[in-house]
Amino acid sequence: MFPSDEGKRYSMSDRFERFECLPEDRRRAVVDAAAEVFGDEDYARASTADIARLAGVSKSQLFFYFRNKRELYLYVLGALTRRVADAVVDEHWYEIDDFFEVMRYAATRKASFAGLSPRIMDFFVRAFYPGHRDVSGVLDAFMTDAVPTMVRAYLGHVRWERFREDVDPMRVVRMLVWCGDGYLHEQLRGGGELDMEAMLSEFLVWLDWLKRATYKEEYL
Predict the structure, then answer these.
(1) Interval 9-28: pLDDT, tens
(2) In 3D, which of 125, 130, 136 has the Cα closest to residue 187?
(3) Assigned CATH topology for domain 6-219
(4) Which pTM value belongs to this model?
(5) Domain boundaries, the chain
């Protein structure tokens, strides 16, 4: 799902209607298989034959639901994004109205999810470095839209008035994203591996720094 472009979102939903009508276990098998293959290989080398084999379907069945590899990839991106959001935003989420506490809660739950679902995290790490023309433009737009979409969808209950009057909260949100981006680049440069626990520790430090730098004194 790509909230930045409503027309494309609906046409994509219609296009995948047949796949969405499948039982959940069959859909999940395809998505999990695709996450594994796309997470292990870059987009160009990822094999749809391997995805079909891991999912327990024929390649012709796979392309009955998706016209090409690009459509499959974009569907999986949306499905996995929703899965992560469902794992992070639980019944306790909306009880937390402090921005930095919400970010702490989200980061902790994401790290826990990553430990339980490493294949999905591998998929998103590769998506962070789109290199193929088939998907690079869409992924760039997806990443650009992610921040305002997250704020609209999940942070409407936050008490933004706790920030100082001279602080734009959206800049704080983007700074956290840039910190995460920079950390990923540093860790993955030269083929390194991402340590989610180490990243979580760093992220919590950034939260404390930014809170002290941007909140009104009475909320520190």
Answers:
(1) 434 555 678 899 999 999 99
(2) 125
(3) Tetracycline Repressor; domain 2 (1.10.357)
(4) 0.82
(5) 6-219
